[in-house]
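cron nightly-structures :: item 1 of 1
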Amino acid sequence: LADEPNCWLLGAGHLNRSAIHLVQSDPEAARVHAEEALRLSEISGHAYNSVAAMANLSHVYQQVGHYDKAEKLITDALGRMSSKERLYVDLLDSYANLLIETDALSRAEEVLKEFFSLVPKESGRSSWCRMSFHNTRARLLMRKNLWHGVAEESRRAIDLADSFRDRIWGLRFRLLLAEA
């Protein structure tokens, strides 16, 4: 790639590196790669990479407590997408989690309603979207100290995870149920 740079492919690589650094809780490295992915997406014109880089930057700012910057990035990213695009649901999940973290719970509830209305019911992506919805919904209920609701959400999610044969999500919700 150094000899014949492909801005789209280089951007995708930086996007993936930023995601890895986010998971590793290294927001500075994640920021550097997300900003480079965003810069390269502007050159290549690749809208998906641009929006995904904005989402990753939003996560970076959320990790370091710059919630206003995080919210601006995620709402700008949502504004660039159609609700019919796959990434839109992921952005809604990110936004709902940001709102939960900042105690904007009624707004988080509204975003979750939109998220759930768009979650595919039959596609292969359905498993992740539906499990992520239950996870974010459980976080909201926990923040509201509605532990009975957390238990109910966890039971529904466990049944769903079992139907998808998803042991990771199933374990996560069994632990959450034990906590509730």
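cron nightly-structures :: done
The mean pLDDT is 91.
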